[in-house]
What we know:
Chain A is 25% helix and 26% strand. Chain A has 217 residues and is of the alpha+beta class. Chain B folds into 3 domains: 2-38 and 705-732; 68-316 and 646-680, Immunoglobulin-like, CATH 2.60.40; 354-526, Rossmann fold (3-Layer(aba) Sandwich).
Amino acid sequence: MKWRRVEPGVHLRRLLAALLILGGSWQVAAGGYIQAKAWLAQYLLQSAWQTTQAGGERIRPWPWADTWPLARLRVPRLAVDQVVLSGASGRTLAFGPGHLPGTALPGQAGNSVISGHRDTHFRFLRDLRPGDRLELTPANGEGLMYAVVSAEVHDQSDLWLLEQGQTLLTLITCYPFDALTPGGPERFVIRAIPVLGGGAIPPAPAATSTGGRRVYL
Amino acid sequence: MARQKTVNHLGRDMWFTSLASLLAGVVTALLLGLLVFIFIPPVAAAESPVEAPSMPLDPDQVRRGSLLLRLASGGVAVDAPLLHTDVQMQVGGMLARVTVRQRFRNPGTEWVEGTYVFPLPEDAAVDRMRLRIGERLIEGEIQEKEAARKTYEAAKRSGRKASLLSQERPNIFTTAVANIAPGETVQVEIEYQQTVAYRQGEFRLRFPLVVAPRYIPGEVVEAAEVTAFQGTGWARDTVAVPDASRITPPVVDPREGPVNPVSIGIRLDAGMPLSRLESVYHPMRIESDAQAIHHLTLQAADVPADRDFELLWVPEPGDAPRAALFNESWQGDEYALLMLMPPALTATAPRVPREVIYVIDTSGSMHGDSIIQARAALQLALQRLDPADRFNVIQFNHRTSALFPRAVAAAPGNLRLARQYVEGLTADGGTEMLPALQLALGQQAEQGVLRQIVFLTDGSVGNEQALFGLIHRQLGDSRLFTVGIGSAPNSFFMTRAAQFGRGTFTYIGKVAEVAEKMAALFARLETPRLTDIEIRWPQDQAVEMWPARIPDLYQGEPVLVALKMAAAKMAGAGLPLELTGDAAGTPWRQQVTLRGGAARAGVHQLWARRKIADLMDRMAQGEAEAGIRQAVLDVALLHRLVSRYTSLVAVDKTPSRPADQGLSSKALPTNLPKGWSATKVFGSLPQTATASQWNLLLGTLLLIGGLLISRWSTLRPGLVPGMDNASARGRRV
C-alpha cells in the first residue's frame, strides 16, 4: 500500500502508456481492416465475376452483399485488374470501385461513371497518363478499349460531369490523394474515350438524348 | 550489493536516458512532419498528371457578355429572363384577394420565351391573368388546357406576345411568356381569391414563394418523340410521375446567390381588435390607420423567393369570431361561405389508450435545419406519451426502417431507446414515401385503442395522387396527422394527406416554433373530436354544399362550407339549419339561422374552387378520370377558374417579333429553399476516401508513444535522487 501513496505518478504513467498502446492498436486495426477488406474483397469478387460472365445476373459475391459485379476494369500498363461493382455507396466502395447508378452501364451508349477510393482501389488513378489504355469488360460482352484523354480536379458538386451526351468512361476518386482525412470537396476525374483495337466499341448516344438523365437523390 | 546496484542503475539510466532522448527526438520529428503534412497542401500533387482545373462550364455555351448562372440541378442557365415578383394582398375578415405581378426582363440579345414554375396556396381560386406590355393590358381568357396551349403556341409562332398560365398541381403553376424582345420587360398579373385558415383562435395566411425540388420516384419513361411543349425541368418524366419535367424547375447553384426578388404589401381589414399581428418569417413594417386597417410592407425592399411567407393575426380573447357568413348573388344563384365554430367541448371523455406511430422523413431534402426541427419535434412527442400508450418510430428515405418490429409499450427502457434513435437520425438519400406509409398503415391496433400516425416530412415528392390513394384505401381506424417541416413544404400534399387521413396538418417553419406548434398538435391528439358532422336543411331547400362530407373537427377548428342555393333565401326570415354531430360518443346538435351576411365579390369562385377540390379528391378514391374531368371542366369554365383541365391565355393582337428573328425558350431558375443543401438533394460526386491512412499513422504514433512511456516508467526510479532501493523494487512488482 505504501508505494501507491508515495508515487502516484508512476501509476498514471502506466495507465497513460496502456491507453496509448490500446488506442494505437485500435487505430492500426481500424486502418488495416479497411485496407485488408479492400484487398481481400477483390479476390472474393473474382469468383462472383466469373459466374456473372458465365451468364448469371446479379451474382452477389457473398450472401448478405447489397451489390454485385458489373464489369471488369483493367489497366495493362499498371497491372491493374479490378471488378467493378453496382452502386457507389460507401459500403460498396469499401469492396471495390462502384458504378454510379443513373449513368450508362458499361457497354451502353453514354457516359459510364465509376468511382473508387483514393486510398485503396483507385489510388492508381494518379499514375495514369494521357493515352493510357483502359479495358472495361461488361458482364455479358466483349472488352471495350478506352484511352485516357484528360485528368482534372473538380468540385464534388460539379454534377455536369455525369451528363450523358457523349460516350465516355469517367473515373472519379477523391483528391488530394495524400490528404489524411476523408471528406474533402475535391474530386480527381479521369475521362477516357472509346478507341479501336480492343474489340467492340460502345454505341454513340442517340442525337435526341443530349440533355442526359439527372441523378437525383 | 545495494550500493553497487545503485551504480549499475545509474549506468543503465544514462544509457536509457540517451535512448529516450533519441526516441523523443524521432517522435518530435514525426509529429512536426505530421503538422507540416496537415497544414501545407501536398506538393506531390504537382507531380501527378493534373492539368489546371478546367472551367466547370460547357465551353460552347459560354459567350461574351452573356448572363450565366450555374445551376445546382446541373448545367448552366444562359441569358434566362430575370424576374421580379410583387405580391399585393387585400384581406377582409376571412377572405383574401391577392394580385401577383411577375415582371420578366430579357437581359440577352435575342428574342426569348420565358417559363417560370412557381407556387401558389393550394386552395387559391385563380380567376384572372393579364399581360401588360408597356401601357397596354391584355385580358386573359379561360380555355380548356389543351386549347389554351394551342392558342398560345400559335401566337408564339406568329411572333405575337402571349402569356399562358397553367396549373401543374393545385399548388404549382407555370407562367409562359412568349416573344420578349432583347432588353424588354413584360409583366404578367395573376389574381386569386382565398379563404384564410382559422384554427385555435388564430388566423394564418400563407404564401409559398418557391417550389422545393421534388423527389421523383419511378422508372424513366423513354419518350418516343420530343414534343415542343415538354417541361423544362431537371427531372425526366417517370411512370409514377408522368409530368415530372413540368414540376422540377432548374435550381440555381446557391453559390450564385439568390435570384427572383419578391416585394410584398398587405392591406388587412381584420374586422376586430387584434392582440397579435405578425409576419412570422419575414420582418415587416406595420402601420395601422384610424379605421383599424393595417398596412404591412417588407422591411427590406425585396426578399429572395426561397421560403414560405406567413402572416398571423389573433383577435382579442373576447372578440374571437364564432360564426361568419359571406354571400354573393351571381347569375341568378345565391352563393355563400359559412364558418361556424362549434362550442368548446367539455373534455370529460376518459383518456383512451393510444398507439402512436411516428414516421419521420430522413431524405436528403430534410438535411440541415429541417432534420433539426423534426428531431426536436419528435423528442417532444416522445415525452408526451403515457405509460399506458404504445408507440413506434419509423424513418424513411429511399429505405424504410422501424425502431421496433411492432409498436411497444411506452416504458422507460423503450423510450430511452427511442430517444437515442431519434437523436442519431441524419438526413440523406431519396424520398420513397409509399413503403413508409404502407408500413405505418399496414398494422392495425387492438380494439379500444386509438391509433394515430404522426408523419413528419417536407412532402417533397411528385407522386401525391398515388399516396392519397394509399391513405384512402388503407387508413382503416387509424388517423394520420401531418407535420410539415422546413422552409417550403408541399402544403398541398400535407393538407390533403391529413384530410384523407382524417387528421390535421401542422406547419413548423423554424426551430423556435417547434414547442408551440407541437403543443397545439398534442392538444388535438389528446382531446376528443367531433365526428359524423351533418348539416340539415329545411325540407324544401335544395342546397349544393362543398365539401359534400364535412371532415372530422379537432378542438378549435370551425366548420367551413361553401353553399349554392336557387334564390336569395338569406334575406328576410333567413334560412334555418341544424348542425349535428358526435362528440366522443355524446350526440351534439346546434340550431343556426342564416340571415344577412356580408356581401362579397368572389364567393362564387370560392364555392367553385371547393367543388373542384372535392371532385379531384374522388380520383384518389378510385373514380375514373373521364367523368371527373367533365365535371371539373363545367365548373371551371363557368366560373373562369384555372384548374388541372383549364388554363388562362392572353394573346396580343399584332406581331412584335420580326419573322427573320428566332425565338429561344428559357426556363427561369428558382432558388433552393432556405436551409437546404444542394449536394444532399441533387447529390454530389461520390465520397471516395476512407480514413485508413490516418488511422494507420495515428495508430503507429500512439503505439510508439505508449511503448516509450512504458519504458520510461520502468527506468525512471534511478533518476530520482535519494530514492531507496526497496521502493524501486516495489515499483517493479
